[in-house]
Amino acid sequence: MSSDGDSILYPTIGFGVGIYLFFKGFKEFRNYRLMADTPVVPIRSIAMGRIEIYGTARGDVQVVSPVSHTSCYWYKVQIEKETKDSKGRKGWSSYATDINGVPFDLEDATGKVRVNPTNAELDLIQQCKDERYGDTYIERVGAGTAVPHFVGAAPAEPEEAARATVESRELAPEEARQEMENLRRQMRLDRRAQQSASPGVIASFIRTVTTGGSSGRFRLTEYCVIPGQKYHVSGTCAENPSPRGEEDRNIICKGENEPFFHISWRTEEEDEKRYRRRAFGFIFGGGALSVVCLGILLSNFDLF
């Protein structure tokens, strides 16, 4: 491409990126205002609708993260592929993301509530970073067929864990049967939730083809929801479709009318500051970029 073409193309791209970042900043500012206007409440006091809670991750069923092999409830693995430009310089480009796991409970001093992390915006501590050549796991992620492995790697283990939980409560036979049925129903919903978090097979296949498949060198960055750690959750409280008992009537998920759903290892105050900084950074940075690029375009056309 000629230098004249470059002098128009790059400022045009920069102008478009600046406009995108500018409006993204207002979306981030809206999320910040939602978080700032919604106080953290005790779990026992939550009501239907938008809520914010802070507590410890608990749960009977766990999965093994695919990179660090950590026992967790939910994980996110960002996969980047090594690339080279026309001058032979190496870099990394986004290849695929694997988000999977099982719903878990968030517990504080007043009680606990189920959390379904599907489609949540995750802000988690980095568990590990690894570089490797293409393998079967990367192939499955690229094809959209990657699934989590339960702790113990035995498909029946969640069922056995549920049965042990029921037996430990020493319930009457009829109550134990009903409780076991509720747990089975919840596990079916959990599997459905983690499957829906995976990308479509056709879209993933197209991405795999266009990015050159799973051959080459990759960088994998993993983030996990760890048992026993505290998390700040900002989302929607809805009716649990499969309660495990009288105290399990609610579930925290992504709302239909309020799509903002955030799970973070930070405190409420830290999250508010983070969203405020991001919002102002996108608004002023995007606005400045679009103005500069527009000025270059006008100058190239002798209009400025």
Q: Any chance you could write out the topology, listing elements then pairs?
A:
Elements: H1 3-37, E1 49-58, E2 63-64, E3 71-72, E4 74-84, E5 90-101, E6 104-108, E7 111-115, E8 121-123, E9 126-133, H2 136-143, E10 149-150, H3 157-168, H4 173-196, H5 201-210, E11 217-225, E12 230-239, E13 250-253, E14 262-264, H6 268-300
Parallel strand pairs: 7-13, 8-14
Antiparallel strand pairs: 1-6, 1-12, 2-3, 2-10, 4-5, 4-11, 6-7, 9-11, 12-13, 12-14
| Spatial extent as radius of gyration | 23 Å
End-to-end Cα distance, whole Å, is: 25 Å
List the helices and strands in order.
HEEEEEEEEEHEHHHEEEEH
Strand content: 25-35%
**In total, how many beta strands?**
14
Low-confidence stretches: 153-157, 197-212
Largest sheet: 5 strands, mixed, barrel
Number of domains: 1
* Overall body shape: flat
Label the structural class: alpha+beta
Polypeptide structure, described:
- This protein has 304 residues and is an alpha+beta fold.
- It has one domain (51-270).
- Helices cover 40% and strands 28% of the residues.
- It has six helices and 14 strands.
- The strands form three sheets. The protein has a five-stranded mixed β-barrel with strand order 1-6-7-13-12.
- The longest helix is centred in the N-terminal third of the chain and has 35 residues, at 3-37.
- The two termini are 25 Å apart.
- Residues 153-157 and 197-212 have low confidence and may be disordered.
